[in-house]
Write a structure and sequence with these properties.
- Helices cover 47% and strands 15% of the residues.
- It is of the alpha/beta class.
- Strands 3-2-1-4-5-6-7 form a seven-stranded parallel β-sheet, with helices on both faces.
- α1 links the parallel β1 and β2.
- α1 crosses α8, α3 runs parallel beside α4 and α4 packs parallel to α6.
- It is globular.
Length: 247
């Protein structure tokens, strides 16, 4: 299929890495539907800007903690466009705190956002892709899910679960032409680092062999490659994009 015929859904696409992914996929000629939950102004501004450039983009307000709503959004995209070629599960939040001090609400907010939406969006997507006998799924995880980060037991647990989900699903659907992979960013200069003081930013950057944070577009480049250009034989993998942080 040429890019003009392809349809993509991106969860959590109004800002940061998600926005960069939406921009990359739209520029590649895909019809893109993305979700947002709270930043309606940012979501609508992104849609308006990309449509003005001639791209086919729309947005839907969906709380990723609601698996049913996530699934209904994907079903609607499939019904409207007649199929689905790429699903990017990006929606996530952080609520960092030492476990001894963590409130149940902080634990649930992080896990529910990452995992309920992942399940809800992927189930109808993978059913459609199995019928088509083609399709790609890219899940955003994190180096926190690979090595763990102090103060992020909730986020590390959620991101580690996404890795297990990716590898298991890849085995389930490999025989019908569907590839499932994950991308694990390190420190990326987005809103998730907004709470860092300048001293904390410098200390974090010093831990990275490249001595800088990644950009959202650098992560989006890898996601777009997996979704559009990677060999069909590549599945069940976690691509780490971290400037050499964890080696």
């Amino acid at each position: 299929m040429n890019a003009q015929a392809r349809v993509a859904v991106v969860t959590g696409g109004s800002r940061g890495i998600g926005r960069a992914i939406v921009e990359r996929l739209a520029a590649a000629g895909l019809t893109v539907r993305f979700t947002y939950v709270s930043r309606e102004d940012a979501a609508l501004a992104l849609v308006e800007r990309l449509r003005a450039q001639g791209h086919r983009v729309d947005a839907a307000r969906v709380d990723a903690r609601d698996a049913s709503a996530s699934g209904a959004m994907v079903d609607a995209a499939i019904e409207e466009h007649g199929g689905l070629d790429l699903l990017v599960n990006n929606a996530a939040v952080t609520s960092d705190r030492l476990l001894a001090l963590m409130e149940p609400a902080q634990w649930l907010a992080v896990l529910d956002t990452s995992l309920n939406g992942l399940f809800g969006a992927t189930k109808p997507a993978v059913r459609q892709m199995m019928r088509q006998r083609r399709g790609r799924i890219v899940n955003l995880t994190s180096v926190s899910g690979l090595v763990g980060m102090a103060g992020q037991t909730n986020y590390s647990a959620a991101k580690a679960a996404i890795i297990g989900f990716t590898r298991s699903l890849a085995k389930e659907v490999a025989g019908v032409g569907v590839a499932v992979n994950a991308v694990a960013p390190g420190f990326v200069d987005t809103d998730m680092l907004a709470g860092f003081t300048e001293e904390q930013r410098q200390a974090a950057a010093a831990r990275v062999p490249m001595r800088r944070f990644g950009t959202a577009d650098e992560i989006a480049q890898v996601v777009a490659w997996l979704g559009l250009e990677a060999p069909a034989y590549l599945t069940g993998q976690v691509l780490v994009v971290d400037g050499g942080l964890i080696g």
